[in-house]
Amino acid sequence: MMVFAMESTEPILIIDDDTELCALLADFLRPEGFEVEAAYDGESGIKMAAAGKYCLLVLDVMLPGKLDGFDILKHLRQVNVNTPVLMLSARGDDIDRIQGLEAGADDYLPKPFNPRELLARIRTILRRAKAETQDSAFPAAGMTFTIGDLELNYGDRSVLRGNEPVELTSMEFDILNFLARNAGTVVTRDDLATKVLARPLSPYDRSIDVHISRLRKKLGGDDGENCRIKSVRGAGYIYSFPGSRH
Length: 246
What we know:
single chain, 246 residues, alpha/beta, Rossmann fold, Arc Repressor Mutant, subunit A, 2 domains, six-stranded mixed beta sheet, four-stranded antiparallel beta sheet, 8 helices, 36% helix
């Protein structure tokens, strides 16, 4: 494990066996206001991430040993470590990206990448996680929004469905928030990408669709009339009360 630090920084953990890349990223991110720590295998990465002191994890898919990036992410989510995760995929295959999102990643970036693109993705994820109060899409911390049996709490970014907690990632919370606050109105995939991902969708980019699929399952009633988030063919998605027709 290696630590690269400066004063008044935000801590990030990179889990990647490429020691040279970790050092290069630390040199790049340090002047941008980040403290970077690195773990070079899955076991060390899990132990460090479980400490809960990081604002974001940068997680490579391909790692030495028994645990790859997907295994690490699934384990962390199972033990309720909800730190935002940006996954890196050297192969750049769509299946890797989709699998990472389905496991609970907030975003992905294929290798090789421009460090400035990585920085932009990191800042976007952190802005979402902090739910900046100046963004009209996010009410002030401590406020709640209720629609039917669903309640969103903006203080701790938690969700209750019928008074039962629903465990969501930061990205899932933001997508649900945007859809619920626009309930009854069709929201396009491009709108979701712009407002939530803070970037345009690239061709064949299924990240929004994967997050929607996970949300449906977690909210219950993921098909038929009980589906809360419905697809509108050729248009986008709409949040509706279970049992309503659109």
